[in-house]
Amino acid sequence: MRADYSTSGGGGSPWAIFAAVLVGCWAVAATVLLQGGGWAVDQVLLLGGLDRLVPLWPGLGLLTVLLIGTVALPLALVPRSPMIREAGRAWLAGTLALGVLEMLRAFPPVHHEVYLAALAATAALLALIATRLTHAARWSRPPEPPGGEPRGVAAAGEPRPGVVTLLAMAAGLALLLPWVWIGALGGLLETVLAGLAAAAVGVLAGALLDARFWSHFEAGEPPRPARLVLLGGLVAGVVLLLIGAGVGQSGAQLPLLATLPPAGFALAALHALTRRHAPDRPHAQDTHQAPHRPHTQDHPVQNRRRTPGGGRAPAAWLVGLGVFGPLAFTDPEEISLLLVTSRDVPFWVAVAAGAGLVVAVLVAIAYGLWLARPSARPPRRAVAVATSVALLVSVGTVAVTAGQPGLHGERLFVVLREQADLGGLPDGPGKAGRDARAGQVYQRLVATAERTQVDLRRELRRLRLGHTPYYLVNAIEVDGGPAVRAWLSSRPEVDRVLVNQRLRPLPAPPGTAGGSAPAPTGPPWNISLIGADRVWSELAVTGAGVTVGSSDSGVDGGHPALAEGFRGGDDSWFDPWNGTRTPTDRSGHGTHTAGSAVGRGGIGVAPAADWVGCVNLDRNLGNPAAYLDCLQFMLAPFPPGGDPFTDGRPARAPEILTNSWGCPPIEGCDPRALRPAVDALEAAGILVVAAAGNTGPFCGSVQDPPAPYPDVLTVGAVDQRRRVTAFSSRGPATAGVAKPDLMAPGADVLSAMPGGGYAALDGTSMATPQVAGVVALMWSANPDLVGDLDQTRQILRSTATPVQADQRGDNCGGERNVVGAGLVDAYAAVKATLD
To answer: Region (Disordered) spans which residues (predicted)?
Structure first.
C-alpha cells in the first residue's frame, strides 16, 4: 500500500502524457488567437466608423469554453494518473473563468470604472466558488496511507509560509516595475478599482493553484523538484494564460498573455523550495501517534489545521501585482491602431509587455537556480523581507522619477441646457460686416455662459473640483468620475454630461514626423486638377487679404512653404496641449493640411493667404473640450495666457476654418456635442470646412462631428482619375442630410511636412484644405463676398464638375450621398465670383 501511494503522482501512460501536451498546446493557441483576433475586430470596427459589436466578447468567451473546455474535460476525467487529471481540471477551471470574465467586456469601454468594479466582484465570486469546490474535493478524497501526511500538507519543520509569500511578492513587484516606468495612472476611483480587481484576480489564481494543485506534481518520496517545476510550472503557466486573457477591456489583456505564463514556473520553484528539505515524514510505528483513523474523522481536521490558506498566498500576490500593472497604468481605449503610427501608447505597451516577459523569465530562472543548488533552502525570512522591501522602494522611486506620477483620469464635459440666442444679428457686406457680426456673437455667447454657469461654477469651487468653462458651446469641463457625473446630471441647468477622454502621458514624447519626397518643381497634380494654377496665372488671384485658420496637430511655422504665410502677432497661435508659443507640429498632419491650403511653392491652393493655427489633437486622439479650445480661439483669438471670456478679439478671427478631424464617440462626443459651436461660427460669418472622414465605402459613414452638420461644408476625396476613393465616407448624415457637399483630390496629395520636407498622403484630410483654399481665392477675388456663406456655398456647388462614383452598385440613397455636388473647380468658382 505504501508503494501505491508513493507512485500515485506518476506521469501515467505515454498516450495520456501526449494527450495532455496536445490539450495544453491547443489551449494556448486558441486563447492567443481568439484574444488577438477579438482585439483586431474591435479595431477594424473602430477604424471603419462602425458601431461597436457588443456581443463580440461574450461570443468569444463562449467559443473559448467550447474549444478548450471540450478537450480539457476528458483529460480531467479519463486518465488514471492524478497528475494528468489535475492538469485537465486546472485548465478546465481556467477556461470557465475566462469565459465568465470575457462576458464583462460587453460594458462600454468609456465606462471603465463600472467594468473594473464588475471585474473585481466577478473574480472574487469565482475565487469563492473555486475554494468551495476544492474544499469539497478534499473531504471526498480517499484516505491517506497509514502514518503518512496528507499530500500537499506542509510537514513540521518546513519553512514558514510567510517566506515564500514574501518571495512571491517580490516577484510580483518586479513584474510591476515596467508598468510603473512606462504607464500612468487614471483617476483616483479608477485606480482603486483596478487595485481591487487585480487583488480579486490574484485570489482567483491562488484558489486554482493552491497546495492541492501542486501536490499532484510531487511524485515519489522524497518529492522530485525538477518534475514539480517543469510539469507543474507548465500546467500553471497555461492556467495563468487563461486567467490573464479574461482580465481587462479589449487590448489590456494582450500584455498579460506574455507576462503571466512564465510566472507559473516561478510559483512552481517557490513551492518546490518549501518541499526540498522537508524532514522525513515519520512512519506510524516510529512515533507515538495514535493509529490511523478514517479520513472522514481525521484527515479534514488535520488538513485544516496544518495548511492555513491552502498555500494560496504566493500565487495571489504574484498574479495580483502582475495584473495591476496593465490594468491600472494603461487606458484600454488607448491601446488602439489609432495611435500606432507613432511611438505612442501601443508602442510603449508593447515595450512594457516585452520587459515584463523578460523579468518573469529571469525571476523563474533565478528561483529555479536557487532550487537546483545541492543544499538549496529558502532564504531566511530577513532576506525575503529585505528583497521585498528593496523592490517596493524601487517601484516607488521609479514612479516618482522616471515614471509619470499623479492621476490622469478622464474628465467630464457638462453641456448646459440654455445656449445663446444668436438671432437678429447685424448684416453687412464684406469683412467689416463679418467683423461686426463676429463681435456680436462673441458678446452674446460670453454673456449667456457667464449668467447660466454662475451657480454651477460656485458649487464646483466649493467642492474643489477643477473645471474649465466654455462659451462657444455653453459647457464646462470638470474633473470627476461616476459620482460627480451623477451629481452633475441631476442639476436642473445641465442638459447632459459626456465623458471627456484624456490621453495619459508618455514616458517620452513621440518622434517628429518628416517627409522624404522632393519639393515640387511645378504645381502637383491635385492643384492642376481643380484649376487653381489657372486662377493664379490667368486671373492673377492668389488669396491675398484672406486668413485661413487651421485646427489640427499644429503647423511647422519654420517650413519654407509656410513661414511667410503666418499672420503673426500675439494672437495667431494657440497650443492648449503643450503650451508652445510658436507654431510647431510633431505628427505632420497639420503641417500637411495647412500646406495644401496656403502653402507656397505650388503645393497650396491659395499661396498668398495668411494662416493662423491651433493644436487640437497632438496625438491623434482628442476630446470635446480640446476641439472647443481651438474653435473658440478661431472665433475670438486671444494672446498667450489670456482669458477666452474677456480677452477675445473677434475682429482678428480668420475668415475660413479648415478642419481635417472628427470627434467620434471614443473621444467623448455625441452627435450634438459641437453643434452649438458650428452654429455660432456660421452666425459670425466664418465658413467651417470639414473632412467627411475616412470610413468609406460604408453608407452613412459621415457621422463624426462636425462633418454631419448642415452648415458645415463637408469634403470627400477623389483620386487622379476623378474617381471617388474607397476610403471617402458616404452619406446620408444624421436626419437624412445629404453629405458630402463637395469633392477634392485626396489620394497621393503632396504637401509640406515638419522639418522642411514633403510627403504624399491620402485621406479626406488632404482634400478638405484644398476647398478652404478655393474659398480663400474666391473671397480674395471679391472681398464683398466675405462672410456671405450661403452665396459662397451656392457658387461652389453650381461650378463643381462631375466625378466618377464608385462601381459597387450602392449609391447610398442617391449619388449626392457619395459625390456631393461634384469636384470643386477653383477656376470656375473664382470666375463666377468675379462675374
So the answer is: 278-310, 550-599
